[in-house]
Every structure is written in C-alpha cells, then in structure tokens.
Design a protein that fits this description.
single chain, about 220 residues, alpha/beta, about 40% helix
C-alpha cells in the first residue's frame, strides 16, 4: 500500500522523548497494520495516540483503548520492554483488536450493557486471530472452564444490565476472577461462530449483541471454545 492510501494519523506523546527508544518501531507497526487491514476492509480514518506508561502487568506491556469513534490510544510500558520484534508484535495485536472496536463504533458502538461489552470484546479478540496467527492472549483463557461455567449463568441473566461493574467483570476487582469478561466474551462469540460457519468477526462487526445471547439451559462452556 502506498503511503498516500493510508488513513491513520499518528500522534506520539513524546515531548520528553519517552518514546525515543521505539519511535521507528511504532511507525513501522502502524504502517504494517494498515497494509494488512487494507486487504480485508476499506480504509478507516483514525487518530492513533501513543504514550508511555508504567506499572502495567507484564502481559499488558502494550495496551490499548478505543473509547470513542475515530481514536485509538496505545500505551507502552518500558518496564517490560525487551526487544523491537516483541514490541512490533505487541503493537500489531493491540492495533488489530482496537481497530475492530473502532469499526464497531461506526455502527452500534461499544455498548452500555454487560452483554454488549462481552460481545464487543469477544469479537475484537477473535478478529485479532483472523488477522494474525498467534497464541492465545493471557486473558482469553485466564479462567478455567469450570469457573467460567459457574459465572456464565449470571452473565446471561445480567446481559442487559446497564449498571454492570466493568472493572469487576473484566479486570477482577471484587469477587470475580481477573479477565473473566474477556474469556466469557470470546467464548460467546466462538459459540456463535461454531453455529454459523460462514460468519467472521469482521463480518459481524455491526451485529447486535443480542444475537450472541443464548438461554442458560443451552450453555456449555467447553463446547463454545
């Protein structure tokens, strides 16, 4: 892809040169991600804001967010920086995940309910694997199947809850296991994909979350993965 065809604008929070050790890797990874995405979806104009951070878990040495249409934020924790290649891979994985969120913002958005959040995260993670051949991320299978099964009925019961605790469901504050929501969300998406063999996470980017909900008696966590 020529540089004129790329549609992302990169912003480095770098006035103090905190990103200097990896500035070139960031630029290369953003260009590579756009080139790969161009093969499967039309260009989407985005602002990519990259900053340095500290005190993140090692598994999140590259982390991202997409809280609004048209903007993806990336953070790099240099406490866990080891090599340019590992950083490049981490950036690509995060960019593909967050790009799916950005696409979803062009339709129904991330969502306000527990179910919408589960589906948005599950779709984004499955899309990552459609774009890259890579091992599962830690949060994809962080919670054993029997424990997920125990929480699944509650997730289905509270699927439409707009007052859900996002930090608890996804980051393990309180009584819930860490990253439970990510594991459950991916399981729900994979269950749907297993029943609709021609579907993809990209093709489902604007699907309503309700399409992924099922009745508790139909559950079967092990069968969904």
């Amino acid at each position: 892809m020529s540089s004129s065809a790329r549609s992302w604008t990169l912003h480095l929070v770098n006035a103090r040169r905190q990103l200097a050790p990896c500035e070139s890797v960031i630029r290369v990874a953003c260009e590579e991600a756009q080139d790969r995405l161009a093969a499967v979806t039309p260009p989407l104009p985005l602002d990519i804001v990259v900053s340095a951070t500290r005190d993140m878990p090692e598994a999140l040495f590259v982390s991202g967010h997409c809280y609004e249409p048209g903007v993806i934020g990336l953070r790099i924790d240099f406490d866990h920086y080891r090599s340019e290649e590992e950083l490049r891979t981490g950036l690509l994985k995060t960019l593909f995940h967050e790009f799916h969120h950005a696409l979803r913002w062009e339709g129904p958005g991330y969502g306000d309910t527990l179910g919408e959040a589960l589906v948005s995260e599950g779709l984004a993670q499955r899309f990552l694997h459609e774009m890259m051949d890579c091992p599962p991320e830690p949060w994809e299978d962080a919670v054993p199947a029997d424990i997920c099964e125990a929480w699944l009925e509650r997730a289905l019961r509270e699927f439409n809850d707009v007052g859900y605790d996002h930090e608890a469901w996804f980051f393990g504050t309180g009584e819930m296991p860490e990253w439970l929501g990510y594991t459950l969300g991916l399981s729900m998406v994979d269950r749907y994909l297993a029943q609709h063999r021609q579907a993809t996470a990209l093709g489902l980017v604007h699907a309503e979350a309700g399409a992924f909900r099922f009745e508790p008696e139909e559950r079967g966590f092990e069968d969904a993965t």
